[in-house]
Structures are given as C-alpha cells and as structure tokens.
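Open question from group meeting: does this chain pack into something compact, or does most of it stay loose? Before anyone orders reagents, we agreed to write out a predicted structure and look at it together. Recording both the input and the output here so the notebook holds the full record.
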Amino acid sequence: MDEMANELIQSVLEMLYYDEKMRPNYPALTSAALVCRAWRNPAQQLLFRNVELSTPLDLRHLGYFLSVTSPSCPRGLILASLVRQVDLILTYTQDPQILVQLVSRCHRLYDVTLRVLGVHALDDDTLEGLRQAHTASMPTPIRSLSLMMCGVQSPLLYQLLSVWPTIRFLRLGAELAAPLPAQPTQVQLYELILHRTLPPRVMEWLLRSSANSLRIFDCHAAPSTEYDPLVAQFCENLLSLRLFRHTQRSMALIRRCP
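Structure tokens returned:
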C-alpha cells in the first residue's frame, strides 16, 4: 500500500468521495484514512473538505470536530486548514461563539451554510469575533454564504454581510422582512440565488454595490412586476438568468441579456 503512486491513491479516493446520493462518503473516507500512512493525508484532505453540522443529530459530532482541530496541537492546525465548506445549524440552545470558533480555526474556509433556529440576532461579542476572524483569514476570506433558515424579521443577513464583506456568492432560503440597516452594503455579488422572494426594498439594498459584478441571478419563486425595473438594470451583464415561470414578461427580460 505504501508503495502505490500518489496519483493512483488520489484517483481511488476521488472515486470514493461521493456516495450513491451524491453526498460526501464520510465512512469510506474515514476507513481509507486508517488503511496506511500513505493514504492518511490525501483521505483527510477530502474528509475535512466539507464539514456538515446541519442537523441536531450532527451536533453530537461538533465536540469531536473541535477537539481534533484544536489550535493547541500542530495536527489540529493542519486539519482545520483543510476545511473549505461548513454547513451548520445554530439554535437558541447553543452558544453563538461556536460559529466564531469554527471560522477562526478554519482560516481557509470558503463557503458557509447556516440554518438558524430561535436566534433573532448575533450579539456584539459574536460579531466582533467574526470580524477578527475575517481579518485573520486574509488573503483567503469567506466568499460564499447560504442562509437557508432564519426568522422573517431577523437582521442576521445584514449582520453577516457586514462582517463578511468579501461574499461574492449568496443563496437565501428564507423570507426576509427585517428593517434595513442605516448603512448600505459594500458586498459586490457575482451570484445571487433566491429560494424565496425578497421585498423590493431589500433587493435594492442587497444589490446596491453589485451593478458591475452580478453575473448569475436565480429566482426560484416567481418575481412580481415590481422586480422588473430592478432586474432589467443587471440584464446587460448577466451570464445566467433563471426565472421560475416562462411568460411574456420573463421573455422580455431574457431578450435584454446579451
């Protein structure tokens, strides 16, 4: 096993990466990491690439993950640096500092998916911790954010975009009707995916700095006519436009996309 070429080991592990449901095959990767020393590092690179803590059942693994990625030991620093994606559920029973711990340790984190239950907003200490982690992550900051669940009146989206101004890919799965912050966003989006329709005022705030950067717009819900002038502003630069319904109105927008 130790004498197998690194290219062959990598090919075998890449074939193991997804299971039949196209999800990371963690049991297989864990077994591969235990086969021999030559397999350990490449298997752990895939094993720690995507960390899923997205259900209450997954949270039982959170303590183990935090222990093996402890910054107090060299191996923990290496494992934490392998993480590119985190899918986390944050509930009212948890200390929000867990999020700070994750993004602080995983300093090469690229994509964060959050499902927030029972938490209206992040406190000042948590926000400051996220800001410090963001500064420390340069030049490889978080670029992608998926906020799939939160309260309708929650300001979480505004808070997260204020501490992660480097977000370029944004996916929203929750309805949002919270009052807008006083300051405009500085986020310049490349991709925006909406699973729920946002109020026009929220869309205007969200896209205020993205006139020259937005290239992909995906709206799963059928947008109302109120959206037409706003979407039309971005059509000339879009590379991909996906709307829920095929209508004369949607065709008029598509024709404006070169």
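Observations to bring back to the group:
The beta strands are 50-53, 85-91, 111-117, 144-149, 169-172, 191-194, 216-219, 240-243.
The CA atoms of residues 99 and 201 lie 29 Å apart.
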